[in-house]
Amino acid sequence: MKTLVTYFSQTGKTKKVAEAIYESVEGEKELKELSEVESLDGYDLSFIGFPIIAFGPAKEGKEFLEQKAAGKKVALFITHAAPEDQEGIEAWLDRCREAAASAELVGFFDCQGELSEAIANALLKSDNPMMKSFGERRSETLGQPDETRLQRARDFAREVMAKLGG
Ligand SMILES: Cc1cc2nc3c(=O)[nH]c(=O)nc-3n(C[C@H](O)[C@H](O)[C@H](O)COP(=O)(O)O)c2cc1C
Question: Is the beta carbon of 144 within 6 A of some atom in ligand 1?
Fold first, then answer.
């Protein structure tokens, strides 16, 4: 079984989750940035990760899934600055699942990721009140994903592998 772990990450938070997942994958495996992946051909399973940007999948992740994931076994991992129990988050995550509609989705994981200072400062200037409130709540995201969340990501990867008999 050959497994790919690939991610788009602007500030390194989704990358941390990718590395945790990669640690847990058994067998032949590769870890790559999304921009380095031409095709999912040749992989039996691909873990694909990206952040939530403006209430939905990062454009890079959405386009990759739409263009390259059709018919492939895919497990998604998503980071977002909002806490996991934030009201309305399911709609953002559903937009990520929709982007993977042509793939065979075999797993889904999401967790909080720190909002970088530069991005928080930019969001504070936004006209969108929800974006602005994200900027104001940066301190609640500091240090995420923490070890507990990374452990959850490792467990997630093991569950997906077990499900596929890998
Ligand atoms: C332009 C922009 C918009 C964002 N919009 C959201 C959002 O709608 N909801 C949210 O929870 N986080 C939002 N975030 C925060 C990121 O999803 C979060 O910090 C993520 O962990 C960053 O991952 P990365 O370091 O891998 O890029 C946004 C970040 C940026 C840069």
Answer: no
Domains in the chain with CATH codes: 2-156 (3.40.50.360)
Which residue, by CA, sits nearest to atom 1 of ligand 1?
53
CB 71 within 8 A of CB 39: no
Phi then psi for 30, rounded to 5 degrees? -135, 145
| pTM > 0.85 | yes
CA of 23 to the centre of ligand 1 (A): 24
Task: Point out the ligand 1 atom lying closest to the alpha carbon of residue 12.
Answer: 25
Calpha distance 48→104 (Å, rounded): 12
Average pLDDT over every residue of 89-117: 98
Cβ distance 57 to 93 under 8 Å?
no
Tens-digit pLDDT profile for residues 152-162: 999 999 999 99
